């Protein structure tokens, strides 16, 4: 038959909902219908495959190329195990830097604090060169002081006091919503096992990719730091270094800012032993 609609059973996870699509509908219309039926349960940061129930095989098969709905059928949407967010590609246009609680009162207590200040400053300089937004928090600054003077916050999109350990505050979520196409967060500061860990877990829970800069994050205890980084790495968070981050963001020797980024890297690379304790 020509026009009209065709009944289709749409299956996702444990759900199965009967609906219909126009006769001759293809892959795109099936996806739209899945989204209309299950949009609140589908994690759009995953890749999916659409499968068709084949009577001749008595099981689902991958949707044949060029498939069109011409008769009553049953289809399902299957999420693949590999998430797009774990690939680790960084581009300046989809990246935001998070600088967490690099405050004066922490100076005597945090191991290698001078080194992570130096690396944090280098990252913020790189962010300014590449036009990457920066969000900064300060944990209870009334009692713990402001961000250390060595770190230049010029041009930061947001500098926000907090009492919550995680940086994911309503104001931060609103700021992220104003930046189109954000996919990746580069996170550094203190303490690794408290504010950094809680921030990272909240961010990946929102479908964002998180890169923790190992040479720009520390704790009072190296034991706490080490186990936090191990735990976070197991959850799919990327534990990396400042040099890797900056060079991944420029990506090409011909990048117009490559020389300036290269000079930043050459100018300050503390050999503190911090990375031997990852």
UniProtKB/TrEMBL annotation:
Domain Isochorismatase-like, first and last residues per copy: 95-243
Family: Belongs to the isochorismatase family.
Any Pfam family: Isochorismatase
Descriptive protein name: Isochorismatase domain-containing protein 1
PANTHER family per record: HYDROLASE, ISOCHORISMATASE DOMAIN-CONTAINING PROTEIN 1
GN (gene name): Isoc1
Organism domain of life: Eukaryota
